[in-house]
Each structure stands twice: as structure tokens, then as C-alpha cells.
Amino acid sequence: MNSNFFVLAEGVLGLRTNAEHFKWSYGIDASPAKQKAYDQCAVRLKLHIGDVAGIAPKNNLGKYHYFYGVPGADVLYYQRPFLLNTRLQLRIEGLLSDRPLLSVNKTYYRFITHRFMNLHSVGYILTDVASLLLLRRGYAPLHCSAFRKGNSTVVVFAPPNTGKTLCTMMACMKCEAEFLAEDIAITNGEVIYSVPWTNTFRYYSRIEKDFLSNIVNALTRIFPPLELLTIYKPKPISAYLDKEKLCSNSKITHLVILECGNTLVQQETPKEAYRKILNLNRYEFNYHKAPLIVAYEFFNPSLNIAFACKTEQNILKKLANNAHERLVVRTSDPSNYASLILDAII
Fold first, then answer.
1. Closest C-alpha to 25, from 193, 156, 164, 197
2. Which CATH architecture is the domain 141-280+320-345 placed in?
3. Which of 71, 85, 112, 226 is the most buried (most CB within 10 A)?
């Protein structure tokens, strides 16, 4: 197949595919990369869009809802009827290795673009698969933002819509910090690796200056399904920050948890910081209950989802324990988070 390469986190996570464009469970299209950069990644996924061979259920295939498999085999099939006698088909194999192959037919790829019940888009499926494989290699995905200022690398956690994205974008755009992440990153418990293909920062009018974009963003915050409409093309982080302000990785020094309330900056214990960031990570990453992964483990228990969950806990605990400082930062005005953090650490 014709191969295109995308590196989602330098040296950590890459994708090889015959698709010309690719984006994960949300965000923007990832930037093309060279095969050498892909080959240097710890976890390398493959995606093929086209005919799915061997998908028809046979007598030796067990059934798990719309999934089909053989006990002990390192392969799983999915098939179900769709519109006008078409079928949704996929096959994933090699999930017990670091280089699995996901094959989906064109009908699935074209029409299943989001997540609905047990129907997940290719982006969602590969996000869940990547999470599982990263954990097997000692990395954990993080639902966070992050920036670097001087010798300090700050990883910011917060409940949804509290202000972690705005915090990092304000630190980078107003306080000369360097960008690492605004919504998703990867860590081994000591270093944070940038995943810059997200774009939730587009919701903040003080960052996005285009008039039409501001109108769309405001309406989307009121009625989220509008996000499904491609009214305008989202911009990459490089449209907002100079290239020299974008970091690929950095050693973590500070862990910050944002909360709403009266202005307060205080130290947090490692134990409580770990409890909070584990909870916040579970909100975003669903590999442990993704239909494809759960069905795969049903036929092949060697997948061991529980081991991945335990690994995630250990990495997040290491992150909480190793940070030089752990802070809780509260304010009623999210635009103040960045200055409060920088005042406390510098």
C-alpha cells in the first residue's frame, strides 16, 4: 500500500497508513512525517483503508456483539449491516505486539466519524489502542496542558472546562513560556512528551481573532453539536505560536491542579495529587472499556487490560511523587491561572 507517516509524539508514537490525512479522536490533522521519524517511535501503529479480507463470520469464529474472534488468536473482526446493503467492516491484528494493523473498509471510514454507542470512529479506536500500547511500553497518556518557563516545566490538570487550555495558552502568548501541550500529552512519569495535534484552544476568543471563528466558537460552547459542522478549518498550534516556542519534550518539575473558587495557591500532598490526576485522566481515556479492546480481551486474555490500568496508576503515582512541587491553584477568573502559577514557581 502507499504509505504516509504521521508522528504524534516525537520518539514515542507514530502511525503508518495509506490515508492521506489522519486525526485521532479529536483535534486537527497530524502533520506528515518521514519514515525515519516513524521508525524511531516506541509504539508504531498501522492503518489500512480498503478491502477487509477474511471478515465473513465462519463456523470457527465466536461472536461478541458485532465482533468475531477465535479464542487465543491475535486478531479480531467487526461486521454489521449498514445502509443500502453495505457493511461496516474492520479487522485488527497484532494487538499483543507494539505494531498492530487496523484495517477498515471505506464505508466504515467514511461514515463512522464520531463515537456512538459501540460504533467508534477510526480516530477513537486508534486513540484507545495507542493508550493501551503506550502503557505496555511504560508511557501513559495525560489529559493535561503543559508549558515550560525557564528551568520549570509545568503540567496542568483540571476538571473539564475549568481552564487548563486557556492557562497554558496565556502563559505562552502573554508570558513568553514555551508550549508543550494544551489538552493531551504523554509521560513516563518523569518527562512529558508533546502531542500538538489537538486544538481545543480554538474555543477561546481572546486567542482566535477571526470574526467568523469567534461566532462559531461562541455558538459551539452553547450548542456543542455544531462542532460536527465543518464551517471553518481549525488551525494548528503553529498558527498561534512561533516554531521556536514549541517543545517536543521536557523534564517535569511542577504539577498544578486548577480549581474554581476564591483565589488561592497552596501546596498539595503527593497522595492527594495522585488521586486527583488519576480521576481526571479517567475522564478522558477509555481504553479500559472501549468495545474493541474489551472484545479482544474476551477472546485473548493475554491482552490484560487490568495490567494496563495498574501501569497507568504506577506512572501517575511516579509523576506525583517526582514533581518538585505540587500546587492547587484556585481563582474565579480563569485568565488569572497562568500569572498565579508563574508567580508561585519563579
1. 197
2. 3-Layer(aba) Sandwich (3.40)
3. 112
